[in-house]
């Protein structure tokens, strides 16, 4: 397996319980783990609904719960894998540098986008109606509806 900068392979970190750089990139790492577990829960629920009908409900639930538990552990280990954790730490550092728009700027920009979209849709409607009229004209007769 490929080794990370710290010299550990991902398979070696699967059995450890330690945290890598505990207080750095904490929010991004927690949200990433929550997202991964949410995907696992939805996947386990979908699998639970399509498992064979002859299987007992206890076995179906056991398989789904096992998938969620294993996925939760993998999510915990992935966000503490040194290369991925360093990436998430740098993501949080870059996000903190972003200058976010104020609510007033956000509303004005949204209004400009909505007005422009309506204008462009009406302009395309006008072009469409013009070309439809032109092609239905008796001398051209391209569209025979």
TrEMBL record:
Question: Has UniProt tagged this entry with the keyword Membrane?
Answer: yes
GO MF, one example: protein transmembrane transporter activity
One matching Pfam family is SecE
From the record, give the transmembrane residue ranges: 31-51, 57-76, 106-127
Q: Which GO terms describe its biological process?
A: intracellular protein transmembrane transport; protein secretion; protein targeting; protein transport by the Sec complex
Q: Where in the cell is it found?
A: Membrane
Keywords assigned by UniProt? Cell membrane, Membrane, Protein transport, Translocation, Transmembrane, Transmembrane helix, Transport
Q: Can you tell me which residues the record assigns to a coiled coil?
A: none
| InterPro entries, A to Z | SecE_bac (IPR005807), SecE_sf (IPR038379), Translocase_SecE/Sec61-g (IPR001901)
- Function of this protein? Essential subunit of the Sec protein translocation channel SecYEG. Clamps together the 2 halves of SecY. May contact the channel plug during translocation.
The family classification in the record reads: Belongs to the SecE/SEC61-gamma family.
Oligomeric state and interaction partners are given as: Component of the Sec protein translocase complex. Heterotrimer consisting of SecY, SecE and SecG subunits. The heterotrimers can form oligomers, although 1 heterotrimer is thought to be able to translocate proteins. Interacts with the ribosome. Interacts with SecDF, and other proteins may be involved. Interacts with SecA.
Question: Know the name of this protein?
Answer: Protein translocase subunit SecE
